[in-house]
Write a structure and sequence with these properties.
The chain has a domain at 2-93. It is 58% helix and 0% strand. It has five helices and no strands. Helix 1 packs across helix 2 and helix 3 (39-56) packs antiparallel against helix 4 (61-84). The longest helix is centred in the middle third of the chain and has 24 residues, at 61-84. The chain is globular.
Length: 139
């Protein structure tokens, strides 16, 4: 799922669907919700359809694809929305070098606000350089 999510982020969110993703980079909205939150439905609907058709066919491969999308969605919620962007004030004080590396990579991704200027499109797997010197650095 990480490869599919990376590709969707780079080529859809920073491409064809930039108008939905842009407010996530600008942070100039007054609402708790962003247009970017519509990606929940963009990914939840195929997940549900894969699971439904897979179960209807006797629990074939489609069910497992749908479950994979669902599990990645939960990871996205907890890692991206809760831990990285602190939209919910849970898991604020982590000393995990892995989580701090993810936060650093995402912060670098957000430094560039243009559609074509992105760097580091991954969420759970990011380049090793973001994990260096994570201890004791304010992110």
């Amino acid at each position: 799922m990480e490869g599919i999510a990376w590709s969707a982020h780079k080529y859809l969110m920073h491409g064809l669907l930039w108008n939905l993703h842009e407010d996530h980079h600008l942070h100039d909205h007054d609402s708790f919700f962003e247009k970017n939150d519509s990606f929940f439905l963009i990914f939840a609907i195929p997940s549900w359809l894969f699971m439904m058709f897979g179960i209807m066919a006797g629990c074939d491969w489609r069910m497992w694809v749908g479950i994979g999308i669902l599990i990645y969605g939960f990871c996205y919620f907890f890692v991206h929305e809760v831990f990285i962007h602190q939209r919910f004030k849970w898991f604020r004080n982590s000393n995990s070098s892995y989580l701090l590396g993810l936060r650093r990579a995402h912060k670098i991704h957000h430094k560039r606000i243009g559609k074509e200027d992105g760097e580091c499109f991954g969420m759970l797997l990011v380049p090793k350089k973001y994990f260096k010197k994570t201890k004791g650095i304010e992110l």
